[in-house]
Amino acid sequence: MNQIKSLNGMVQHLLELGVNKKIAVAVAEDDNTIGAIIEAHLSGFATPILIGDKTRITQLLVGENTDPSSFQIIDIKDNQAAVAEAVRMVKEDEADVLMKGLVGTDKFLKAVLNKEKGLLPPKAVMSYVCALDLPKYDKLLFVSDTAVLPYPDINQKIAMINYSVAMAKRFGIDKPKVALIGATEKPNAAFPSTIDDATICKLADRGQIKDCIIDGPLDIFLACDKASVEIKGIPTPINGEADALIFPSLESANSFYKGQMLFGGGELAGLIQGTIKPVVVMSRSESKKSKFYCIALSCLMA
Amino acid sequence: MNQIKSLNGMVQHLLELGVNKKIAVAVAEDDNTIGAIIEAHLSGFATPILIGDKTRITQLLVGENTDPSSFQIIDIKDNQAAVAEAVRMVKEDEADVLMKGLVGTDKFLKAVLNKEKGLLPPKAVMSYVCALDLPKYDKLLFVSDTAVLPYPDINQKIAMINYSVAMAKRFGIDKPKVALIGATEKPNAAFPSTIDDATICKLADRGQIKDCIIDGPLDIFLACDKASVEIKGIPTPINGEADALIFPSLESANSFYKGQMLFGGGELAGLIQGTIKPVVVMSRSESKKSKFYCIALSCLMA
Fold it and tell me: Considering the entire predicted model, what is its pTM?
């Protein structure tokens, strides 16, 4: 397949393939996400199953000038029960994707993480990867961890790498370039994460991490800007053309992507990783467009 | 004075005031910075004193179509001796600003940090503050620490706040809004920096940190975007209008500003803080314009 280089391109790809995935929305009476859900439904790549308070869900759909009869709605007024049913449907293959509606993230994730009934396999690392679409970069940037792991240790970082690589492959990138981000390119004990990075590079050299080209620590310039690589004269196989950025902390990944959304004209699609099926958890402050892209990404990954 | 809202505005301000500061450049035979030095000289706000290998400095100036006789050049071929002389001139008020040329940052800072002959008072915290000029933000953003302190503790953070406030005041901001940056707005033991932030807010409430409005932890959206503050309904005196961002780690500040330089059309001016006189240390990978702005900022602060 051709490499998908934008989030719009991702949507086009879904439409061309005729993808249509079932999305179980837990506590769907959520005016923050209903617009994006309707848009995904109308686009044709998603069939939402709206689980929650049917009266309020119907009101919201009517308020958005949409015909409620074109949606499957499961009437469960208790939030916890609605989440449990949505998780069950995904686990038992009645739906392809789980999505959070008007329920606290903690309560929602508790059901996802439930050992017996949840969606995370034992010992799997849960993480969050964003596909960032930046007007000034000529392809997508897969960025993690923007939401789950505060200070990823080396094993969590390796999981993040594998998730980013798996995602990049769905976008048609056979051997993604993965940059391990630090403040400088010098591994340095003052930044423990950079020592992990050096170890990860060695694992990659020995083929113990596969299907990608890894280097780090690298700063944002060396990871994403060829001119900086030339000026600094640092030999790196990433060569300013990173597909994925693995950040040393949630704070750094989070500040980077939020800065790009505000000041760089960025759009994003993000997804929880590590679960047996895609799980969509969106922040209220994401744009409507980014919410739509999150749903599209979940359908691509399902 | 009127608030200066851009780096160009800063240069205009220097010219209107007729500022002219002496800049001692250590090991000045540096083709990475000579262009910016010449530009600052021609602009009129800086008088460079070029210390280093006179033959090579002269060649560089001629190569840039500049008349070497219009510059004061002090011929010292040994790098360490050139740095020592530049530091001495600044310490003894023969120059207003110290600037690094073609010499390693470690060697240069060793002279700056020398207990007897250096420029850092005992117990002072050395930090680095950048003034970021972003096309999509309607004023400057003072960002720290982008270069010196890996994981600032609470005392280092308070020093960073005071430096940012002092810098903002030179730009005509009487009571700058200082946002302590985290991944979310919830103080949380999983992110130790956010606990420091809560303590810092309490110190500020009690008037133990002065001349600014402080809040945190806040994410980039709540710090810099009014719309996000309204959507999230978080009451904060920063209100999406931060003047200064205090980051929890060098990695996060560094990734944020480098991302903005690459993808947000940003320009910056940065300066070491804590020394008795301004110290300019520039990265090779900064743009020529940013190098010029660094020199201008040092003249504003001198």
Answer: 0.96
